[in-house]
Write a structure and sequence with these properties.
By secondary structure, this protein is an alpha+beta fold. It has helices at residues 3-13, 27-47, 60-66, 123-128, 198-215, 219-231, and strands at 70-74, 77-79, 83-86, 93-104, 111-117, 140-146, 149-153, 159-169. An eight-stranded mixed sheet has the order 1-8-4-5-6-7-3-2, with no helix packed on it.
């Protein structure tokens, strides 16, 4: 969908297409609200409503909507003795999906491992438990987050090889040529369109209109757009 179409649709949702009053909305305000709206929508739907299960793959529709955000990168890792630690996370990282690694030792060639994401509070118990600690023979280990880095535990028994992180990245912020970017202050020379398919952009337009309606204290429009977003989610 063209960015100019998004501007028109947002103004239509707010009944501001022909408005000259103090609530007239500037293009940069719509850009900011749309980008915030798509980020909010992604976080909300990645988490889902089930407190025991993340929502990114609860349905075919959810998988289809969120798959443009999936990305895979190769990590550089350092041996810390008990674990291997990444140098950091991708700049556009938003949510964990999985990590794939191979492991090797002096006596064994590289083999694929299953890596579970575990909680820092359980670290000592997991390293001590014979059924859960890193095991090259079983092909299983666990990973944790700390200081915006990934730690893959080995107990010093093997080396981590070819680690690949699959994650949900931040949605691309839209930009309109000639309109100052509210995030950088730079005036772009070309449009940056929304990365999602058009039917989801329609939902994000309602999300954007809901945010702006709240900012200008337009309760009727805010309630209407909030209901529309929920109905089409």
């Amino acid at each position: 969908m063209l960015n100019q179409t998004i501007l028109i649709k947002v103004r239509q949702r707010l009944n501001k297409l022909a408005s000259n009053d103090y609530d007239n909305i500037m293009p940069w305000q719509i850009i900011e609200a749309f980008n915030k709206g798509q980020s909010d929508w992604c976080r909300r739907n990645l988490h889902g409503l089930n407190v025991k299960q993340e929502g990114d793959e609860q349905s075919t529709s959810r998988i289809d909507d969120l798959q443009p955000l999936l990305d895979t990168v190769t990590l550089t890792m350092n041996d810390r003795g008990t674990y291997f630690e990444s140098n950091g996370m991708p700049d556009d990282y938003m949510r964990w999906k999985r990590i794939s690694i191979q492991a090797k030792s002096e006596c064994c060639p590289a083999k694929k491992m299953v890596v579970y994401l575990a909680e820092q509070g359980n670290r000592d118990e997991l390293l001590r438990d014979k059924n859960k600690q890193p095991n090259l023979e079983w092909g299983e280990t666990f990973a944790m987050f700390e200081d915006n880095k990934i730690q893959i535990f080995t107990n010093g028994l093997f080396a981590v090889v070819s680690p690949e992180l699959t994650y949900y990245r931040q949605p691309t912020k839209i930009q309109i040529a000639g309109v100052k970017d509210p995030y950088t202050g730079i005036i772009p020379t070309v449009d940056v369109p929304c990365m999602f398919k058009d039917d989801l952009v329609e939902v994000l337009i309602d999300e954007c209109a809901k945010i702006i309606a709240g900012d200008i204290e337009s309760q009727i429009q805010m309630q209407r757009q909030a209901q529309t977003v929920e109905n089409n989610n």
